[in-house]
């Protein structure tokens, strides 16, 4: 059993979990498996982005909505979760209502490559190296100068982050990387 847990942790760190294992789900057409971000990591990502009540936080591949809900609940921000899986979108809406933040947390069933993210002042993501690299042109063209991006565990191609934080979570160490869109 310990060997299996070690293998799962290694695969999780690489974004290669097999769908259906240990809370992992995968919707048709999804390139990245759904792996829940631990609550402690969610809070550290939002702190790294310096989220305030003036921010609009977009979470790309929002899963169960925990990051958007935390941004609204604990930082007073507005948030939008973009997620392909309709069951996860429905679950996110239900959790936001129960948390009392439904008026500040919106969830959309949409492909992250087709979504308009220009309203975002903060973008968070826990995707994969290849998806992140493909997102870079969209991030750079749609986000306004000063917008912050935080990626959990994976780089955005060869785009050098301005800051990387190693965060010790309950199961392993997580790498959180921060970028800020420069003035044009």
CATH architecture: 3-Layer(aba) Sandwich
CATH class: Alpha Beta
Helix content: 25-40%
Structural class: alpha/beta
Average pLDDT = 87
Spatial extent as radius of gyration: 15 Å
Total number of helices? 5
The tally of strands reads 7
Please report the distance between the alpha carbons of the first and last residues.
52 Å
Strand content: 15-25%
| Spatial sequence of strands, sheet with the most strands | 3-2-1-4-5-7-6
CATH topology: Rossmann fold
Order of helices and strands: HHEHEHEEHEEE
Instruction: Give the overall shape.
Output: globular
Q: Biggest β-sheet, characterized?
A: 7 strands, mixed
Total of domains: 1
Q: How would you name the CATH homologous superfamily?
A: Vaccinia Virus protein VP39
Flag low-confidence runs: 1-30
Topology, element by element:
Blueprint lengths: L1 H12 L25 H10 L7 E5 L5 H10 L2 E6 L2 H14 L5 E5 L12 E4 L3 H14 L5 E5 L10 E6 L4 E8 L4
Parallel strand pairs: 1-2, 1-4, 2-3, 4-5
Antiparallel strand pairs: 5-7, 6-7
Helix pairs in contact: 2-3
